[in-house]
Amino acid sequence: MQGMTRSELMAQLAAANPHLRLPDVELIVTTVFDGIANALAEGRRVELRGFGAFSVKRRDPRTGRNPRTGQSVQVTGKVVPHFKPGKELRERVNGGPLQAEAAIKAA
To answer: Taking the mean position of all CA atoms in its chain, how far away is CA 19?
Structure first.
C-alpha cells in the first residue's frame, strides 16, 4: 500500500475540479493545512465534522532509556499533535479495500 503525497493530493483535486487551475488548488490546500497547523500551534482544537478532530496533547517529562547503551536519559516534556478520526471516516475506512481483502483472506 502506498501513501499520498501533497502534490498527488493537489493533482487529484485539480483533476476532479477542472474549473480550478492547479495554482488555485495549491493555494487552497496550503491555506487549509496552514490554518490547521496555526490553530494547533496556538493550542486550539480543529474539528472537521465527519472527518475528525486535530488537537494537541501534552507529554510529561520522563526518564527514558538509550536502546543502544541501556543508559537512563531524561526526556523533556513536549506538546504533540493528535488526530482523532470522526465516525464517518472510521466507517469509510472500515468498509474500504483493506477490510474487503481481510474478509476474503478469512473466508
So the answer is: 27
Written as nine digits, the cell of 67 is 536502546
C-alpha grid cell for residue 7?
502534490
Cell numbers that stand for 77 in this block:
516534556
Domains of the chain, residue spans = 1-44, 47-106
CB count in 10 Å sphere of residue 39: 15
Q: In whole angstroms, what is the distance from residue 8 CA to residue 17 CA?
A: 14
**Percent of the chain's residues with pLDDT above 90:** 82
Q: Which CATH architecture has domain 47-106?
A: Irregular (4.10)
- Global pTM value: 0.74
